[in-house]
Amino acid sequence: MELARLYSNRFSERERAQMAEFWKILCDDFLSRYVRPEDCVLDLAAGYCEFINNVRARRRIAVDANESARSAAAPGVEFVHAPSTDLAAIAAASIDVAFVSNFFEHLPSTDDLLRTLGELWRVLRPGGRLLVIQPNIRLVPGRYWDFIDHHLPLTERSLVEALEMTGLEPVEVRPRFLPYTTKVRVPKAPWLLRLYLRLPPAQWLFGKQMWIVAVRPAGS
Predict the structure, then answer these.
(1) pLDDT at site 83
(2) Residue 183, domain extent
(3) What is the pTM of this model?
(4) Total domain count for the chain?
């Protein structure tokens, strides 16, 4: 209930509609490169389910500790009510792609991050991919704390270190990708967002969130 009230207060209906359009373009024009139609995809801390509702995959699973997130899942999306540190409801080595966006900063401690990454390693099949979009505190040092539920400060280097500690191998690391938050200056028009995703120099200018792809090594 606390989580539901927090996010209800944080985002207006208009902002949620803008976010939904933003995520559809992000999925169609960028994230779809990392997800195959035959994949089983897990969206951890799915929230309003903007990613999992728009991705095209054989099986789609949304996981969130907020029970009210269930109502955001589109038809055909399975919902699992669980904390990130205990994904017992998900079978080991059953996931082809796991996706996490704007979540790790909400974890209360490094131990919780490592436990979460350990669970993601467990549910990913060997060769499976973890996709992460995450605020980079190196690039937004003060504004990182503008949200009451931000606890854990992370840079791309500290997150890479955590991934490696849990047996996940980073294969793509961009310190700058998306702007920090949709509540500040971001491309709102669909054509501007599509252009932004195609222009790495624009991402280096405005990007305050990192993009990381890691894999569970084959044979692990």
Answers:
(1) 97
(2) 2-215
(3) 0.91
(4) 1
